[in-house]
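Hey team,

Filing this mostly as a record. A colleague (T.K.) asked me to run one chain through the structure pipeline before their review meeting, and I want the input and output archived in the tracker in case anyone asks later how it was produced. No errors, nothing strange. Just documentation.

Input sequence:
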Amino acid sequence: MLVAALYNLGKTEEIKAFIGDKINNEDMFGMVLWFYASMELENGNTEKAKELFEGGRNNGARGKWIFPVLGNKEAAEKLTKALELLGSLD
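Output structure:
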């Protein structure tokens, strides 16, 4: 939930500092991987974004969970729009 709160605030560097190398853990929460995918896409790293997006899907992330996890309409729309460039959110 801390990562979602930081994402809502646009604090991507704080997310990276908090998660660090743990982003590569097999059991990383899928939505966190999707936050990272969005951040990588913003940085122009499309291939890494696709990898993280697929990892998120494999770990249970789905589009229907974006708003409930974020609880913020603007942040949810931003994340959804970015992720739709990478593939299906279902």
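Quick notes for T.K.: The longest helix spans residues 30-42. The chain has six helices and no strands.
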